[in-house]
Hints:
Blueprint: E1 3-5, E2 10-12, H1 20-28, H2 38-51, H3 62-76, E3 81-87, E4 95-103, E5 106-114, H4 125-135, E6 144-148, E7 158-162, H5 188-207, H6 227-243, H7 249-260, E8 269-271, E9 280-283, E10 288-292, E11 299-301, H8 304-310, E12 317-319, E13 322-324, H9 331-342, H10 348-376, H11 382-388, H12 391-408
Antiparallel strand pairs: 1-2, 3-4, 4-5, 5-7, 6-7, 8-11, 9-10, 12-13
Amino acid sequence: MLMADDTNRTARFDIPRQKETAMTEVIAGAVDTHDLEPAIQQLLDRKSARIESNVTYQPLTAVEVTAKLRDFFATEAPNRTVNDVERIGGGASKEQFMFTLHDTTGVEKYILRMDPIQTAAETDRQREFEVLNAYSPHVPAPRADWVDHDGSRFGQPAAIMNFLSGVTKPSEKPSGPKVTGLGTSFPAGLRDDIGPEFVSVLARIHNVDWSACSLPSFAAPLAGTTQAALWQINWMSRVWRDDHVQSSALAAVTERWLRLNLPTCDAVVMVHGDYRTGNFLFNEEERRITAILDWEFAHLGDFHEDLGWMVQDLYATRQDGRDLVCGLMERDELIASYEAASGRTVNRRTLRWYEIYCAYKCYAITLATSIKAARDGSNHQDVLLSWLAPAGYRFSTALSSMISEELKS
């Protein structure tokens, strides 16, 4: 059983004797803790250099964004006029603005997504641009039309995508907090229609032949090895080390368990990385999904990772005496539905690894990166990021329970 010592911040736990040698190898460095997808390594290095500048972020006004957009389109699309710029809510990581482009053929709505100095999720606008353009022809998703990958035009990296209509939660008897996706519930009839489609779209994402797509910023882990899992734990452990504001025995123990139990990835797919309620839009009247949003964590890896993210407790609800993943369907129903839609077989042990990994990832996002960004005044949503911190303790409770169970087995 895990016990944290607050005095010396060490952890004491029972671990099977046969695993001691493996753990010693991890601690000694026999497992490569620096093997990362190259673009992610560069992303995190850029973040570290940027944060060292100690600049407080000043959120942009709609007037300032209007000027930047008009300067941008004066060269990118001089026949189009920018109007109706307004900040929109949602998103704990990116500044988002809606605007319209007018030309002789009509009017179209767009969304501008810009990086603050620090964010709840440090990601790359160029990668988001590439994956949206590769996958929007195959699944309902925004089309990315322009990107400022280095921030030379907007001051911070930015991407511009077309606006798609829909809602993130039902208007009928709305429930749950205002932060989209957390505790959202659906009326029974609506979830019966939306749930299967939600799973079916995920299966389509995983079944697209990514090797036939233009994804120059993406690298693939080696199939038939543990590299897919290793890249992920190396990514998030680097995030934890860079961003944590307080040491955590639980984080250390979880990281070690994950390194000791890396699963093999038999087939590499495009992983969405944040596939859950709150990150899709739907039409209530037609009862259909209109867009899958927030592709910023997308990467090539193991399909089990998206499932492990979906089953996190924070996105679940309890309705009609049932525990519903993302407020839509029970866990076993989700797995069966995914297997039927994708033609893949879910390995329960691999899913367990990714369930633990995703809780660790959420733990790092809420109790490290979000708190640091809010503390440093480097984000436009410092109040929301501070509010997210208590959610981290739900993940710590889940991690303590899951790791304790694994160490006993």
